[in-house]
Amino acid sequence: MSRRVLVIEDEVLVGMMVEDMLVEFGCEVTAIATHFDQALEHARDLEIDFAILDVNLDGKQSFPIAEALRARGVPFAFTTGYRGKVLGDGYASVPILQKPFQMEDLERVLDSVLKR
User: Cβ of 91: how many Cβ atoms within 10 Å?
Assistant: First the structure.
């Protein structure tokens, strides 16, 4: 069965790259959200199995989107290009994909999160 994934990424080319990787793993990318409001709406409404969430969407922190996903019980992973601790203590168990990441990194996160 195909996993439905929401990609939240403000850089269009990065979002397309992630989509290509996910398709290689047999996932269906339900949507790619590039703006905060759009991402929050999708996180609340779309039927998805997993989300990949950029920590910073065009200068705006994406934690309210993460909370919307969490409230629905949708697992997610963060992506970030920032080094060091960028997540609060409430997200210690959430996987982080450090940009730039490889297919193997994404596959490892998908496997670990979707098996929980």
Answer: 17
- Specify whether the CB–CB gap between 28 and 53 falls below 8 A: no
What are the residues facing 77 on neighbouring strands? 52
The residue with greater pLDDT, 38 or 84, is: 38
pLDDT at 15: 95
Provide long-range contacts, Cβ within 8 A and 24+ apart, for 35-39.
35/10, 36/60, 36/62, 36/65, 39/6, 39/8, 39/65
The boundaries of the domain holding residue 105 are: 4-114
Task: State whether the Cα torsion 32-36-38-43 is positive or negative.
Answer: positive
- pTM of this prediction? 0.92
Q: How many domains does the chain have?
A: 1
Q: What is the Cα–Cα distance from 75 to 90, expressed in whole angstroms?
A: 14
The CATH number of the domain holding residue 43 is 3.40.50.2300
